[in-house]
Write a structure and sequence with these properties.
Length: 811
């Protein structure tokens, strides 16, 4: 294809760059066949000995699961061409004997992860290992940029370029809204301008949405499960060859796996489950069955999370189903690309709303995708915990001269503006633990060793114990250590967060890995279980399940709602949701890009205010806290807030006299930082968040293999360091990093500020309603989840209020 030839020509010229193209259009071969063709030319010129040995291509992929697929994809053209190259993977799953052999006799191409690549750079002979590189490839770059793993990759690339000057670096990506910036982040400042290559236009993505068969009036207007449409989903599954059913959370995956089998028992044994908390052997077995082209081993359906978002290739997947709003345009495009995963084929995805307003979001996603409005990935700036880890890695990897490494680190985009003060602090932190830890020798992880044969002094790691501990801790993934789930036979099913399993008593049932289980006992971070006879049980919840609405999708949804207010519905989803939007317009107002709607309603003696910024759950949670605090300053009143992706509810017993101008004052962007820090107790959030930073920076360790530290111990240890630094080393730069990351990642401060700036230019309409409006209802329903003193279930209370909405509409 023309874009592939463009990449080959750029590679031959020694240039680096980024290939941005839809899934399944041939990105892999675009970069891979460049070095393959070069090797064929070398072999043709000197058949006896022109081929250099050693590692020639380093291929970095974000997921272990992708490594096997990638090795297969790279091997096919090499075998067809008869090239004498070996292609192997090296990940955390690779055996120690294979890893040792790879270091003695490296393969021609190695597929690895950022963590495994960094571990190789920590070897004293890393210069020898990487000196013959022809190419470095970073696959699925959009999954790394904007994360600490991405920064770890940036630093690894800066080291590799120093070891092998001039080696071309190419990134592969799809579904990125800021391709130019993404390429600059990947290449740093030593790879020239870079070449951005865009794949073929016009890959067809068909997005269909399952519409509620009985209309939206009886369809849930709040919730997140969507199992009411399971029969429609089963029909789609039975009408296709193989289907991937994507959900947004692991708990939703567990529920849908059970629901599909219950709806159609003939699918039992032909439907599998796949998510990140399952044991690796279970996931790999499912992935292997997906690769089978036909026969009994071929799966009909896999219910999964983002664990199967990425991949080079499975056997053809005919259909993708998305349960619930994708929450992002790029995520929908990525998942759609898992079907029709061949150049020229159509990618088909079926959306399944879990409540009525998600019909709008599916229509908005289709519109945004057709207009090319994909989300940008914002790169991180100067995470010093990652830098500290990198300094020790380089000290292990043959040592470093301070001035040389400083210049090298500054070639990485994340540290291009690193100041001398910040560098000096990071060096001091690694040399002696900073001001407050200098009395403890275990924090003196690097020391200056005199040079030999006239060479300058170099920083090295002084002891083998420190070297071993560092290698075991390399990486930036800090997960909540889960409790292992095991049968009495010893077979492991996966892991569940301690916060969930600790609330169960022995004898209670729960659903995990698609199986009904009974908890027998909980001992030393292991939940011993047996199979339950009945299929009922509690479904675990994972803390990582919150997925906020993206700016692009929210803007597109607002635009569609505004057009509906003018009588322009267009998409089938908008026609389906027309009764709700018309009812909203009748009892209140429809929001739009230039109009902020604020509703006031009294329910059982309480006054409820609903605001609809459409900025996503995380932004709304922070804004709800700020609005509650600002409102309480106006008069002595207790204000409680709750949030969804679409709106914010403020609830109080005493009415607040707020007109449009008063609301404009509450929503002012002025003083946001101070008010937010006060309202959400950011200091306490920073203490909790410090666990991640402490682990990456080397202050705490997960433990040696087989001796994993308890999460409670790691949390207590990290908070202890936080308190020590605050009292005795207030200038410790990790403290400021913790505060900054809490604001940006947990509270989405930047997006919150942008939302308030946008509202400042909008017209604010305050409307008093007699009952909950259709837009207010889901926000109100969410607030019920915090109610604990009631004899009704959440579903019963929501159903009763929904019946009231219907009678209100009829009136």
């Amino acid at each position: 294809m023309p874009f592939q030839r463009e990449v080959w020509e750029a590679f031959e010229s020694g240039r680096s760059g980024l290939v941005h193209s839809a899934t399944g259009t041939g990105k892999t071969h675009a970069v891979w066949l460049g070095p393959v063709r070069r090797e064929l030319e070398r072999t043709g010129a000197d058949p006896e000995g022109s081929s250099r040995g050693g590692l020639r291509v380093l291929w970095i992929t974000p997921l272990r699961a992708l490594a096997t697929d990638t090795v297969e994809a790279l091997s096919e053209p090499v075998e067809w061409l008869g090239l004498d190259w070996t292609i192997e993977k090296r990940t955390g799953d690779t055996s120690s004997s294979v890893k040792a052999r790879q270091l003695r006799k490296p393969p021609s191409a190695m597929v690895t992860t950022p963590e495994s690549a960094t571990i190789m750079l920590s070897r004293a002979d890393s210069g020898r290992l990487f000196r013959n590189l022809d190419l470095i490839v970073v696959d699925e770059w959009h999954e790394l940029i904007g994360t600490k793993r991405g920064v770890q990759t940036e630093l690894a690339l800066s080291r590799l370029r120093a070891l092998c000057p001039g080696v071309p670096t190419w990134g592969l990506s799809a579904t990125l809204g800021n391709t130019g910036e993404a390429m600059r982040v990947l290449l740093g400042s030593t790879s020239g301008e870079g070449t951005l290559v865009t794949g073929p236009e016009g890959k067809v993505v068909e997005i269909d949405t399952v519409l509620p068969p009985g209309g939206v009036e009886r369809f849930p207007q709040a919730g997140h499960l969507g199992v009411q449409l399971v029969d429609e989903v089963v029909r789609e599954i039975n009408g296709a060859g193989t289907t991937l059913v994507f959900t947004n959370t692991r708990s939703q995956t567990e529920l849908w796996f059970r629901a599909i089998q219950k709806a159609d028992p003939s699918l039992v044994g032909r439907v599998a489950i796949h998510h990140g908390s399952l044991e690796g052997d279970i996931r790999r077995r499912v992935e292997a069955m997906l690769r089978v082209e036909a026969g009994e081993a071929r799966l009909k359906c896999v219910v999964c999370t983002s664990s199967l978002d990425l991949g080079v290739d499975f056997a053809p997947v005919d259909l993708v189903v998305q349960i619930g709003s994708p929450k992002g345009v790029a995520r929908l495009a990525q998942r759609a690309g898992r079907s029709g995963h061949r150049p020229g084929e159509v990618s088909r995805i079926v959306g399944v709303p879990t409540h009525a307003l998600e019909l709008v979001e599916f229509a908005a996603a289709r519109e945004a995708l057709r207009n090319g409005h994909l989300e940008a990935r914002t790169p991180l700036e100067k995470p010093l915990d990652v830098l500290a880890q990198h300094l020790v890695t380089c000290a292990l990897g043959g040592g470093f001269v301070e001035e040389e490494l400083l210049a090298e680190v500054r070639t990485a985009h994340a540290f291009r503006d690193l100041t001398d003060e910040e560098w000096g602090w990071a060096m001091d932190f690694c040399r002696r633990g900073g001001e407050s830890l200098r009395a403890y020798p275990q924090f003196a992880r690097i020391e200056l060793a005199p040079g030999e044969d006239g060479q300058p002094a170099r920083y090295v790691v002084p002891t083998r114990k420190l070297a071993t501990a560092h290698r075991l801790g390399i990486g930036t993934i800090v997960s909540d250590e889960g409790v292992l789930v095991k049968y009495r036979s010893g077979r492991t099913l996966g892991s569940i967060e301690e916060s969930f399993i600790s609330r169960l008593s022995p004898g209670q049932k729960f659903i995990f890995a698609g199986k009904p289980l009974v908890l027998e006992r909980l001992r030393e971070m292991t939940a011993w279980v047996r199979r339950a006879k009945s299929a009922r049980g509690v479904v675990p919840r994972w803390n990582g399940g919150r997925m906020p609405l993206s700016t692009q999708l929210a803007d597109a949804a607002l635009a569609l709602i505004a057009r509906a207010g003018l009588g322009e519905y267009g998409w089938p989803e908008m026609e389906a949701v027309r009764p709700i939007l018309e009812r909203q317009g009748a009892v209140s107002l429809l929001p739009g890009p230039g109009v902020l709607v604020v509703e006031r309603v009294e329910i059982r003696g309480e006054v409820h205010y609903f605001v609809f910024p459409f900025a996503g759950r995380l932004v709304h949670e922070g804004l709800g806290a700020v609005l509650s605090m600002r409102a309480s300053r106006l008069s002595p009143v207790t204000v409680v807030s709750s949030s969804t992706d679409h709106g914010i509810e403020l609830r109080c017993e005493t009415a607040l006299e707020l007109d449009a101008e008063a609301w404009r004052g509450l929503l002012s962007p002025e003083g946001l930082t101070d008010d937010l820090l006060e309202a959400v107790c950011a200091a306490q959030l920073s203490r909790r968040h410090f666990r991640e930073i402490a682990r990456i920076a080397g202050l705490t360790r997960q433990g040696y293999p087989g001796q994993t530290s308890r999460p409670s111990y790691l949390q207590a240890s990290s908070e202890m360091y936080f308190d020590v630094f605050e009292e005795f080393d207030p200038g410790n730069m990790l403290l400021e990093q913790a505060r900054r990351e809490v604001l940006e990642s947990q509270l989405e401060y930047r997006r919150m500020a942008e939302t308030l700036e946008r509202i400042a230019g909008m017209r604010i309409e305050v409307v008093a309603t007699e009952r909950l409006s259709p837009l207010a209802f889901p926000v109100w329903a969410e607030s019920l989840r915090s109610t604990t003193v009631t004899s009704e279930s959440w579903q019963q209370r929501v159903r009763r209020m929904a019946d009231g909405l219907e009678s209100y509409a009829e009136a």
